[in-house]
TrEMBL record:
Biological process per Gene Ontology, one example term: negative regulation of TORC1 signaling
One Pfam family, short name: Castor1_N
PANTHER family tied to this protein: CHROMOSOME 1, WHOLE GENOME SHOTGUN SEQUENCE (PTHR31131), CYTOSOLIC ARGININE SENSOR FOR MTORC1 SUBUNIT 1 (PTHR31131:SF3)
Domain CASTOR ACT intervals: 76-141, 263-315
Domain of life: Eukaryota
Protein's recorded name: Cytosolic arginine sensor for mTORC1 subunit 1
Gene Ontology molecular function, alphabetical: arginine binding; identical protein binding
Chief site of localization: cytoplasm
Gene3D superfamilies xref list: VC0802-like
Keywords: Cytoplasm, Phosphoprotein, Ubl conjugation
UniProt KW Ligase keyword: no
Location of the Cytosolic arginine sensor for mTORC1 subunit 1/2 ACT-like domain: 178-262
Amino acid sequence: MDLHILDHRLRVTSISKNGLVNFTHPLIKLIFLRNRTRCKFFSLTETPENYTVVLDEEGFKELQPSEHLQVESSVWLPLNVVSNGNASSSSQAVGVTKIAKSVIAPLAQQHVSVFMLSTYQTDFILVREKDLSVVISTLEEEFNIYREVGGESVPVHCQDVHNGLQKNGKEAIQPTVHPVLIPQNQFCVMSLDPDTLPSIATTLIDVLFYSSSPKEGAQSTPSQDLDCIKFFSFSLIDGYISLVMDTEAQRQFPADLLFTSSSGELWRMVRIGGQPLGFDECGIVAQISQPLADSDISAYYISTFSFDHALVSDDTETMQTKLKDLKCHC
């Protein structure tokens, strides 16, 4: 398999709920007026706590400093696994569990923190730019590694890498076992032809900026399973659109414009973390994806500024059993 280091330098930010009004204009510009920005990587995810915005440096210029904007200090690079030479963005994602053993677990063992962003098309593994040499030295035996530069894929090899985090023979620190919440929403992972984006503009703006969250009072302190949870994710990356929403939100959109897999799968969410997770702990994604991979259960995985979220198929008895297993960590 091939591992591509994509030609994007990303920032991970958070906009507070009560500060969203200050960013409505730039966000609408980034979503709907992509020809007026040079942003090629944009993702916006609403959770009960805040809005997580992941975007490249050109898009980041659109966000003005504010007390309502938090910015993680690192520059992040997106990695993408490609099988059989096919561009991964041309077909539906195989899920983070398919790369759990080959990518996620080895990086965790080398103390590399990852930020995951699964979309309808593919799975992006974000790593800090400063950790890139460790990533390459860790994965080069398993993958042919390429770095995209100006539209060309250039082979990358690890040569004389010296980094305190590099392979050192020490056993990886065991990650903290975080509690999980399993809300009752069923979720859809969908896509949309970018040319039809204007057709859903009114609905998308309403869902993102004006819709109220279910069980509003229960969300500020997520200490128990929620009946429902507000979660909506929109990504526009290199011309491909991905949407993650619950079935209630889906009903607001024209059915003939959004498309999903032929099976029309619905997904259940596993929300990881009782308190905000931060960005420095390693192994959180591996902790969730490894048992799912062992049971051959596909999953989408979306990290946000405060918590992580796995989406697993709501269709199998095995899934129900595995959810109960994960829930036992509470």
